[in-house]
């Protein structure tokens, strides 16, 4: 059944005009009046309904019922990711959303090849947020992760609250002595924050700042993973370890 995100509150029993981006999607899929659809607004659960009328520029949909169905893992992960170049960032955002990430914070690091600021940063953030919504439509998630505005690493670390006992802060580093098997067998009660560097990694100075902010350096074995692979590998491993599947 086609799934569409609507940026606004939904309610069973109403008929609404779908937003322009959903209208285009309906037309591309060649859907017809009477076809069943699922809508979600990010507030939780999903709504089942049907298309009522399809015009060249407008589509009406009827909302029949609300379902409490969710597809979230039993833990919340924030991925603080050094911005990768080319289409790598797009790809890893899409895949980490499929794997259950709860929030994405793009980081500008010393060795990063991409520099984002001002209007360019805001446009890139909007582009990434659109990718997140599309990934949620595809994978069945009804809670839409937020992509933060790109932040300088030091500025982001400075605004973090003091680490608490019920959260887990992890820095992926090929120089780490702690292996994945050392992680707890059950998820922490609080948030899990995972920090990953850009293509060339974090500098030693940056890694020192991250560790000083309460992060534990974590290694993934003898092979060095690309930045666009590391987060996906960890999220998949955490899902297997903590019941995220």
A few lines on this structure:
With 245 residues, the protein is α/β, with parallel strands linked by helices. The chain has helices spanning 20-28, 88-98, 118-139, 153-158, 204-212, 227-242; strands at 3-5, 15-17, 36-40, 46-54, 59-67, 77-82, 103-108, 146-147, 151-152, 168-172, 178-179, 192-196, 216-219.
Could you tell me how far the N terminus lies from the C terminus, measured between alpha carbons in angstroms?
Answer: 21 Å
Number of domains: 2
What's the CATH topology label of the largest domain? Answer: Alpha/beta knot
**Form type:** elongated
The SS-based structural class is: alpha/beta
- CATH architecture assignment name of the largest domain: 3-Layer(aba) Sandwich
Poorly predicted residue ranges: none
Full CATH superfamily name of the largest domain: SPOUT methyltransferase, trefoil knot domain
SSE series: EEHEEEEHEHEEHEEEHEH
The whole-angstrom Rg is: 20 Å
Indicate the CATH class of the largest domain: Alpha Beta
Describe the fold and architecture.
The chain is α/β, with parallel strands linked by helices and 245 residues long. The chain has 2 domains: 65 residues, Ribosomal Protein L25, Chain P (Beta Barrel); 166 residues, SPOUT methyltransferase, trefoil knot domain (Alpha/beta knot, 3-Layer(aba) Sandwich). The chain is 30% helix and 25% strand. It has 6 helices and 13 strands. The strands form 2 sheets. Strands 6, 7, 8, 9, 10, 11, 12 and 13 form an 8-stranded parallel β-sheet that branches. A hairpin with a 4-residue loop joins strand 4 and strand 5. It is elongated and about 60 Å long. The chain starts with a strand and ends with a helix.
